[in-house]
Amino acid sequence: MGVGLWRLSWYHLTTMTFLVAFLLGALLIQYVRMRRVGELVERLTPAPHGSVAGAAPPAGEPPSPKPPSRDVAAHAAGETPEAAKRPWSGSLRVAAVFTETPNVKTFRLEDPQGDDIPFTFLPGQFLTFSAEIDGRTVRRSYTIASAPTQRGYVEIAVKREEQGAESRFLHDQVAVGDPLRVSGPSGAFTFTDKDADSIVLISGGIGITPMMCVTRYLNDRSYLGDIFFLHGARRPEDFVFREELDYLQKRLANLHVAATMMDASQANWPGALGPISKEFIARAVPGIARRRVHVCGPPAMMEAVKASLLELGVASDKIKMEAFGAARGRAPPTAEQPPGGLELPAQRGTNVADAPQTALPAATAQVEFTVSGKTVPLGPDQTVLEAAEAVGVDIDYSCRVGTCGICMVPLKAGAVTMDVEDGLPLEEKAKGIILACQAKSIGSLVVEA
Question: What is the pLDDT of residues 326-368, one digit of tens each?
Fold first, then answer.
């Protein structure tokens, strides 16, 4: 056998050349395969923010469908969307107005550009509306009535109050096509299909709106647990969403609706009469002691219902409440409630600026606002926000019920009590931050505002 290069036989040289060529060929094939895989992955991956909108797909390929947003996907999975934790502020357009009862209208709102509504929310949260009325800015909060699974619009149901500037403005002046200034969502009075295996929803009057939001959502989510929907109204014609509840009850075997009217003398009402009593609740909801209960309505109605629930064995930590109706400072004593009774913050249902005011006790302290350089007397039942408004100190706010967190301000000196702190994170409270709409004190305060 002859000798070739490097004193190797031609046989060895030929064999080595073949092996090197085979190895290079294998590497080339692997490179081509990996490149094709990379191109396929790139086509299937949604374009990141900042990419060119409307870029054409490769020739011969159909356009990729628009992927759902992370927040919508979170809703579909029953998770809390991040956007529901962040306040949004902007303008929505009135798409439609529906008359529900003689004094209640539903306002359907949409994005002005026709896109999905620019925020996500949880069932039971509310939006805050602001408008210039008679030369002053009026803010008013309304619970969302439509389900968060509906992305094309959001709805609120508003009762017209003779003393409510915002509700009269919406009923009397707002028309389809008008823009409305909106902020939110806010509120912790929420329920999702992951929270409990059954739910009892008890409402009075216009307090039905968060209950409808929850019911519509649970229907969209094909919730398998029992839904007990108890409602009280003054008259049958005041029963908001009655037809829709009748329709849903026929479709959903797990939805149980019971209603009672205070006055049915002028209508053929087949249901119960009187207030929502302990006996009414016990008949409508079997085994209520083991169930989660949400209550929403006028403050007096809610307190009576809560007392009944406790007597029926429902643990207090299973009862969530949210008030609708005018209340501010300390509620005036009644024959059933001696002085020093329940203290309630301003609630949704009547615009706070128009709510009947109870006289505040004489101020024994004062609050100094360091940024504006103003000092004002502070009554023991007066909030820091009320004191600020009295002297024109600007503290931003939204809900006025302690849940949105918009009115957080630093407390530099003094001590306060707060009835509701849902909108105040523990880490902020530890830094000396307070909710101006809830903060009260019998001593003097120094506030950075």
Answer: 433 333 333 333 332 222 333 344 333 333 333 444 567 999 9
Q: For residue 174, what are the CA distances in angstroms to 63, 94, 109, 167?
A: 41, 8, 12, 10
**Is-contact 446 432, C-beta < 8 A?**
no
Same-domain pairing of 182 and 221: no
DSSP 87-99: -EEEEEEEEEEEE
d(CA 56, CA 59) in angstroms, rounded, equals 8
Chosen domain end from 165, 186, 207: 186
Task: Say which DSSP state 25 is in.
Answer: H
Judge whether 146 lies within some domain: yes
Which of 139, 92, 119 is CA-nearest to residue 406? 139
**Six-digit token pair at 417?**
């009590």
Backbone angles phi, psi at 159, to 5 degrees: -90, 130
Which whole-number Å values give the CA distances from 356 to 195, 197, 237, 337, 396, in the listed order? Answer: 37, 41, 27, 19, 22
CA 446 – CA 119 distance, rounded (Å): 36
Query: Residues 6 or more apart from 254 whose CB is under 8 A from it?
Result: 223, 224, 225, 226, 227
- Which of 319, 289, 315, 291 is CA-nearest to residue 303? 319
